[in-house]
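FORM 7B - TANDEM STRUCTURE REPORT

SECTION 1: FIRST PROTEIN
SEQUENCE AND TOKENS:
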Amino acid sequence: MKTAFAQSSSEVDEYLQIQVPSVTKHHLEVRAAETREPIRVVVLRALKAYGVTVPDEAISDRRKRRPA
């Protein structure tokens, strides 16, 4: 059974530190380079695809963009 959780705009991100096999980290780095997104975005997209609740606004590149 899935439960919907509402996240308010005032909710803050929390730190989550995990250890993964080196081959997994390498694959995440390659995928991040291919999509030109941070690893954080790649992981959040994967978690959402797995069925974990991830607000759409959390899946964004928070790095500052430089003018071209």
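SECTION 2: SECOND PROTEIN
SEQUENCE AND TOKENS:
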Amino acid sequence: MIITEKWPVLGRHERAAEWLRIWTDLGRAPRTIDAYARGLTEYLVMCDREGVDPLTANRAHVAYFVRELTERPSRRGANVVSIDSGAGLANATLQQRLVPVRLFYDFLMEEGVRESNPVGRGRYTPRGRSGGHQRGLVPRLTKLPWIPNDSQWMEILAVAAEEPVRNRVMLALAYDSALRREELCSLRTDNLDPAHRMLRVRAETTKNGLERVVPYSTPTGALLSGYLAHRATISRARGPLFLSESRRNHAQPLTLWTWSKVVRRIALEAGVARFSTHTTRHLCLTDLARMGWELHAIATFAGHRSTESTLAYINPRELHPTGEKLRVAC
């Protein structure tokens, strides 16, 4: 099993390897499996180090694991933009590490190996003697999304204007169509409808399996036309839209990590370190709200199953017409 080759500790814990094998057989995305393997590996390493059998571990052992995570210094060091946990890992990262541990214990309960889950989850029950909201093991922090102000946005666009056409069209599409990073990098040539300035976001590339068709602007269409002509000098084959131009991976599909590095470089050069690959999605959805779109329409555009997810993307205190500035800059 490839996953145990990458994470050897899983090979020493038969039940853990079995659980991951089931998720893999169910067709979960490779990145999801990798994230689950990473989180569970860290927990199992802690168990091995402390002499704890993970099959019989209790809440105190999980609490010790949480304390380790909260005290761990970040490997990014000076590149850390903000830390909302008050320690080395952000609150969202803590939640991400605990999810596979909780799911693993859910699996053990279903298999009759355990009677309870030491991780638990936050839930709401009808009010009564013991009813009400029960907090999860680690409080979940929900913050308003960060959006650059006008001057910061103009700095980003000034730097982006000097980028190669591929990077400019990717930034424009990421905003116009509110694309997630994976959706953007997974676009294919046959997902485009230039005549109607529409693109199809395939279900298998989305976070929740919802396919959608979204528009892009006229200036972005012109920029895209220029990129397609440039792409033909790299490869005339149909397939992934965005290709690498490096010597090492020439004409290969552009990876998520390469695009993240491009955006990070632009952000640092512009002096706006908080700008990320997801910021354009926040900007787009916030601008749609500013223009008076109804919430359910924005949710459909974004590919959200629930309007609650959409609300988390819109910062009512940061609404400003950045969209028009992007179109002009492109």
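SECTION 3: OBSERVATIONS ON SECOND PROTEIN
Residues 78-87, 123-134, 320-330 have pLDDT under 50 and may be disordered.
Residues 219 and 327 are 6 Å apart (CA to CA).

SECTION 4: SIGNATURE
Preparer initials: ____
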